[in-house]
Amino acid sequence: MKASNSLWKQKLAGRIAEPLASELDVYENEVALRRQGKIDEKVFAETRLRRGAYGQRYDNGQRHDGITARKLEFPTAGTKGPSTLWDAPGMQRIKIPYGGMNAEQIEVMAELAEEYSDGIAHITTRQDFQLHFIHIEDTPALMRRLAAVGITTREACGNSVRNVTACHLTGVCRTQTFDVTPYAHALTYFLLGHPDCQDFGRKFKIAFSGCRTEACGLARMHDIGAVAATREIDGQVKRGFEFYIGGGLGTVPQQARLFEEFLPEEELLPISQSICRVFARLGEKKNRNTARLKFLVSKLGLDEFKRLVCEDRKTLTPDPRWTAFLSDLGTHDEAPLKPPSLLQIAPVRDPGFDEWYKTNVYSQRQGGYSTVTVALPLGDITADQLRALADVTRKYVKDTVRTTVEQNMVLRWVSSGDLPAVYRELKAAGLGEPGAGTIADVVSCPGTDTCKLGISSSRGLSGELRWRLAEKQFVMDEAIRNLRIKVSGCFNSCGQHHVADLGFYGVSRNKGGYTVPHFQVVLGGQWDNNAGAYGLAIGAVPSKRIPDTVERITGRYLAERQTGERFQAWIKRIGKAACKSMIDDLTAVPAHDTSPEFYVDWADAREYTIGDIGIGECAGEVVNPIDFQLAACERETFEAQLALEAGDAARARMLAYESMLHGASALLKQRMPMFSDDPDQVAGLFREQLVDTQLFHDPFAGPKFAHYFLKAHERRNEAVTDTRAHQLIEEAQLFIEASHACYARMRQQPVSTKA
C-alpha cells in the first residue's frame, strides 16, 4: 500500500539535502494549489514538466489527432477514460546522468515501479528511466524517495538541459582517449538549476564520448557534443575535447558543427555556460518549431555564433566550480569488488551461455574484467527483475551499473571468471537474453502505446522484429547480425531512426476510406563515428510489410556486398533509386475485404481506422486525383534525393520545393477548383485557405510543416549547400506526410466553389 506524501516527508527527513527538500515542498504545494484550481494549468504544466512529470496518452476509443480509432488498457480495472490531468495517470521521467546507478538506486526504482506504476520501468534512448501510469498527486512522494538515494527528476523535461548522456563503456573502453565520466558529472550538476539555463525556448541536450570512432556517445547529434581528445602542449599531454554544437534529430535533423578542434578541459564548463547564455538570449521563444539551438546556429552562421559565445565568455564572473573538479578527477574512478580472473574453459556450459557471451560480454581494457550487457526487450524491466539485478550487482560488482542509449543496462567490472555464474543468475531472472548490440536488439520509442504524438505502433513493430530476428540471429552472417534497427512512432525521431542502418518512423495512408498504419523506410544513417551521418526516407510501407522489407533489404545486401563492404557503403554504391525499387512492390495496400490484417496495427486487435468514409463502386475504387497528385509529390522528393546523391544540390533543392508547391496546389484544388498555378498565388492561397484557417495544422506540431513550404517558397532563388538541400528534402517529406493528413480532414468538409 502506498504511503502518503506527508508520511514519506517525515520518514525521509534528513536524508535529502536542504535546498532540494525545500524545492520538493514547494512543488508539493503547487500540486495542491493546482488541484484546487488556484494555479493556471499552463503555468503548472511548465512546473511539472521541469520535474519530469508528463501527460500520457489515453485515447478512450479515439486517438487525439482525430485520425484513427484506438483504445488503451488502464492499469486499474474499471477505470473510466480520463478527462483531465487528475483523472489520467501520466509518465514520470527520471534523470540518470551518464547512466550511472548503484544497487540501492535500482531497488528504489523497483519499489516505485511496483507501488506507483504498472510494475515495469522503461529505459529511454537518453539513459533515463520512465515510469508510466503515475498519478500526479503521487509525484512528490516519488520524487522524495528518489532524492533520498541521490536521484533527481529535476529538468528531466521542459525547456531545460536534459539528461547529460555519455558512453556506457567510458572508463573501461579499449579504444577511449580518456574516461569522460567526471566531466559529464561536473557539467550535469553545474548546469542543473543554473540561472543561465532557465529561459530557453526549447530543450537542450548534451552528450560525451570517450573516443571519436565508436557510436556509444552519439556526440554529433546533440546541442553540445564533447569527444575526448588530447594534445601535446609545451611538452605535456593535455586533455580536452573535440567540441561540437548545434546538432539534433527531431523532424528535420541537423548534424552538430565543429565549434573547436580542441577545447581545453578547463574551458568545458565556462564555454558551455556561455553557449547556454547566448541560446537563452537569442534563441526563438515564440515559435517552438524553430526554438532549438540548431536553428539559432543556422540562422547566425557558425562563425557569428562562435564570436558571440567567445565575447560572452569574456564577461562571465569567474566561478570556482569551473575547475574545482579537475583537481580530483579520480573521485569517479571505479574499483572492482573481486580480483581479476580468466574465464575457465569448461567441457559443458549452461545452455545458451556461449551465444550470450558472444554478444553480451565486452572485455575491458583492464585485464581479467568484463562488462556484461543486460539486454532489455524494448527497454522494459520489471520490478522483480530490478531487484534480482540489484542482488547480482551486490554479489559480483560494486556500484558500477549503467544504463545505455540502446535501452539496456550494463554491469561493469565483472571478474571474467564469474561470467558463467552471472549468466546463470541473470537467466534465472529472465535477464539472460543474448543479442545485445545486434540486429535483434531493436530500439523503439513508446509510440502509440503511451505517447500523444504516436502515429504507428513502434513498440508493436519492434517487438515483432525482435521476435523474428532473435530466432535466427546466430545463423546470420555477421555483416547482418551487426546492423542496427531503430523505430520511431512518428517523425520526431525519439527512436533515433535517422542514425540507424535500418530506420523506420510511423505515418499513415488512406485506402478506400480506411486508414492504414505505415512506416517510412529510412536508409543511409550512420550509427558509429558518433552518429556520423543521417539517413533519408525512401518510401512508406504498410506496417505489416515492414518485416518483409527488413528481410528483403538485408538479403540483397548479403548477396551483393563486396568483400568487407559495410551497409552504408553498399547503400551509397547501389544508389537510392535501386534501394527504392527494392521495396516498390511492398508499398501496395491490398483491399480491406481481402486483407483486413493490413488495417490493424501491430500488437493491437482493433481496426486502425476513422470509419467507413466511402466504398468504391463495383468496377473498382474511384480514386480522387489528389491521391495521384500526392503520390507524384512523393516521387519528386525521391528524385530530389537522387539529385543530391549525384552532387546536384541546386536541382535537389528545386525538386524538394516543387514537391511542396504541387502538394499545396493539390490540396487547394479540393477547396477551390479554379485558380492559377502561379507559385506566388499558390503560396498566398495556401496561407489564406489552409494555414490561417488552421486546416493544415498538425494536431501536435501546429503550423510547423506549413511553414516548411512557405519558407522554401520565400527562399527558392537563393544558393543552396548540400546540407541545406538535405534539410529541404526532409522538410518536403514531412510536408507531404502532413498533406496526406490534411486531405483526410478535408474529406469531412464540403468543397467550396469560390474561384
Query: What is the CATH C level class of the largest domain, in words?
Result: Mainly Alpha
CATH level 3 topology of the largest domain: Four Helix Bundle (Hemerythrin (Met), subunit A)
Q: Number of DSSP helices?
A: 24
- Kindly report the spatial arrangement of strands forming the biggest sheet: 1-2-5-4-13
**Biggest sheet character:** 5 strands, antiparallel
Q: Which parts are unreliable, with pLDDT below 50 for 5 consecutive residues or more?
A: 59-83, 609-623, 751-755
- Approximately what portion of the residues adopt beta-strand conformation? 5-15%
Distance between the termini: 67 Å
The second-level CATH architecture of the largest domain is Up-down Bundle
- The CATH H-level superfamily of the largest domain is Nucleotidyltransferases  domain 2
The total of beta strands comes to 20
Question: Pairing-aware structural class of the strands and helices?
Answer: alpha+beta
